[in-house]
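Figure S4 source data
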Amino acid sequence: MGLFDFMKNAGAKILGKDRDDTPESTKPLSAHLRDHGIDPVGIQFRFHGDTVVMEGTVPDQDTREKAVLIVGNVEGIARVDDRLRVEPRKAPAQIPPKPLSGAADASATTSHASPGSGDGGAWTSKTHTVASGDTLSGIAKQHYGDARLYPRIFEANKPMLKDPDQIYPGQVLRIPPQG
């Protein structure tokens, strides 16, 4: 959970000037997430001026971090208040097979994925705001000490990034842990 700052005048131009908390005003954010490969089901948006509050659940930490950055990298959004929780989506219930007749009191054992902590939890990645003249290799050198590790940053920001040479000043990127 946290408040993340972005450059209000940089990013995708998907929002109109008049925003409120109606589904019509937040629909472009859901579509933008979907366009970037993230299912927005379970995520709700609210506007407070140039801040977007994101609440709800996502299936994993990577999805959470990407969703916040995709929404924050929209023109007109200066901050994202991340109130998302990681809760793995449950698989449909399966009926255990009936024990064979004559089996001695067989019991079915099922395992379930842990439901997540229920709170937002800490981010596993750092963020980096792109400055004029930055390159992914330069950012990798700064954060990892090795420019050749830029593909790690590129992969962590897909599908928001489609080309490692196309980043822009003000864009906020995920910097995954080095390990």
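Figure S5 source data
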Amino acid sequence: MSKRGSGMLRYSLVYSVHNVVKNNNTFREYYELKRSQGKSHYCALGHVAHKLVRVIFKMLKDNVAFNLD
């Protein structure tokens, strides 16, 4: 993850992603894919955080609710 920007935001993203990985199958599968590719735990969390940010941005841009389907 880039060291630019808000450190508190990066901290919040990584720890929120840790919770998302435990509770959401879609993000858990993506995390396990990255781990199977040889990524470290925190590197895989960084990839999942980036995916979460993309999902949140798309939801805000299109004004839609989160749907697991």
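The chain has three helices and no strands. The CA atoms of residues 38 and 44 lie 9 Å apart.
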